[in-house]
Amino acid sequence: MTAPIVEFNEGFSEPGAGPVPWADVDDLLTKSEMFWLSTVRGDGRPHVTPLPTVWLDNILHFCAGDQEQKTKNLLGRPACVLTTGTNDLHSGVDVVVEGVAERITDHARLVELAALWKSKLDWDYVVGEDAFGDGAGRTGLVFGVRPRKVLSFGKNPYTQTRYRFA
Prior knowledge:
The protein is α+β, with helices and mostly antiparallel strands. It is built from 3 helices and 11 strands; from the N terminus they run E-H-E-E-E-E-H-E-E-H-E-E-E-E. The radius of gyration is 17 Å and the shape is globular. InterPro entries: F420H2_bilvrd_red/Heme_oxyg (IPR052019), Pyridox_Oxase_N (IPR011576), Split_barrel_FMN-bd (IPR012349).
């Protein structure tokens, strides 16, 4: 992925502030363990849930049980939003990732992702033919979200920056 187009929003930023550099956002996506996934149910109601993620090759990956509400939502309406950051008002950076969730079924990629989940989060997944298992008979579908747009909200100073991808 080429570097995103950076659009700093002065109207929602403190005077004299500048954009959060993409390298800092990329680092936050790499290091953050928990995100909030927002999806839409079949009847149009929102659904939000926390889950761990892995940022690899500019794609945000997560696993969801094959019977979970978020999985049902994504299989029907794959557009979603993932957010991470801090609950502090005066420090840190919050990030919003908008994109479309796609199932990851390539076995080699699943093996690579399972190793990252283990090293980053100490989670053990059994890699199946096209999904993860937990060793107890439950299946986890793996999804990847390639960002279409990312927003960052700096909080010291307050800033808003949009990163657009081709």
